[in-house]
Amino acid sequence: MKVKNMNNSSVKTRKLIKNTFIEMLSDKREINKISVSELVARADISRATFYAHFDDIYDVVEEFENELIDKFFTNAKLLTTNDYERFFAEFFAFIRENHENYKMMCRSNDFLFSAKKLSTLATNKFSELCNNDKTIVNREFLELEINIFVEGLLCEYIKYCRGLSSVSMDDLYAYAKMWYKNFLENRRTKR
């Protein structure tokens, strides 16, 4: 962060820059197609203002990604739950709360790195729940099954955000609840 004293004006300017960047990313689909010149023109700010806040376009990307990840890690309900159903409910609530940002980012081809971070966080938390669950007796390919489920869900969400799927957020949530109930039932019995 370049600006040392973050007053209200600085906070608003940074938000304007990030929101403009996300809109442009949604339109252009690739970070390397976004120039500082275009961004400042669209945001109606000077280049000096941009550079007072960020070093370059990739600095904006990094801050935006970090904010989304920080929101995940500061969500106490999401991270402290030891209940599967509550975890899925909180996770989908988190996605819905941040949906507009994710939707714009999902339209970009460069979002995949951020999406991978989010899916890794979700996979790790779900794996933690499973590893702490003493009723799960069948652990064969446990991590793999969780990973495939989360990655598949993420893929469907990206398709939904890009308008390539008729599946809705409610459908994804309903499927996730049905999947984890079947998953737990299968994992709690010996094979």
Explain this structure to me?
The structure is a single chain. The chain is an all-alpha fold. The protein is elongated and about 65 Å long.
Count of runs of 4 or more consecutive helical residues:
10
The residue ranges in which pLDDT falls below 50 over 5 or more consecutive positions are none
Q: Into how many domains do the coordinates divide?
A: 2
Q: State the total count of DSSP E strands.
A: 0
Q: Compute the gyration radius: what is it?
A: 19 Å
Order of helices and strands: HHHHHHHHHH
The quaternary structure here is single chain
Mean pLDDT, to the nearest integer, reads 84
Which class do the helix and strand fractions yield?
mainly alpha
Shape: elongated
Helix content: over 70%
Q: Termini, distance in Å?
A: 54 Å
> Biggest sheet, in brief?
none
Strand content: under 5%
Which keywords apply here?
mainly alpha, Arc Repressor Mutant, subunit A, 2 domains
Helices and strands, with pairings:
Elements: H1 8-28, H2 36-43, H3 47-53, H4 57-73, H5 76-80, H6 84-97, H7 99-106, H8 112-132, H9 142-161, H10 169-187
Helix pairs in contact: 1-2, 1-7, 6-10, 7-9, 8-9, 9-10
Characterize this entry briefly.
The protein is an all-alpha fold. Helix content is 73%, strand content 0%.
